[in-house]
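Encode chain A's predicted structure.
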Amino acid sequence: MTGNNENKKRMEGWDITSPVSEGLHRCVQPGIQDCRSVSVYRLNLKKGSRYTLESGELEMNPVLIQGKARLSGEGLDGELEKLDSFYIPGNSTVEAEALEDCIFYIGAAACEGYGKAFVRRFDKDLPLGEVHQIHGHGVGQREVFFTLNPEIEASRLLCGLTWGGNGAWTSWPPHQHEKDLEEVYCYFDMDAPEFGFHVSYLKSGEVEDIVAHTVRSGSMILAPAGYHPTVASPGTRNTYFWILAAHSHASRRYDLAVLDPVYADT
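Encoded structure for chain A:
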């Protein structure tokens, strides 16, 4: 079987390097990138600076991946530590004040009138349950912490944090959910020389068309279609904020992933 150059060219366009300059940056936008439901922002703030985040027609799930901040507005007043997150529905306004240099990754999607603002504190010792979970097994085992889980009412978003094992695979066996949801993986805590690979291929078993994106802190990789496992280099744990955006409120579900049947038993 020969590779398909058109497929490869499409998948090569799924690799986005998020900006490090100060301010709010829209990194993924429907109609600009190869997607129709998911948006991703990166907000960089220097210590002492403030930014007013307005959601408008979108719901948003920001997670603080670096630094310390203070929130005000929408009843969310208080301080955020690293990996704390919050959710705001459409037509919301929140001000973030950087108590240290800060980086927020922000998942967003169309708001359909569902959802209520809340803050989620990161707790690595939270018992396993709705928010803290272990997925996969063997070299594909990974730890997941939901920042916006299915049990919380929202319009289209499901979001969370994932940590793979040292030099191990995540999202294995490969899966896809292109009929119902789009996804973006936003990598962090993987500064050079650490790196991993985000693998993309469109059809079951057709690994001749694989595109392997090198990922480290700041990388954002789209998965609007096809299968998308990831693997880390030895000494590295693939670490990312993932954003699932459903194409409709009805398909805002976490159980719609379809495993690649060729690798489903591996």
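The CA atoms of residues 8 and 209 lie 6 Å apart.
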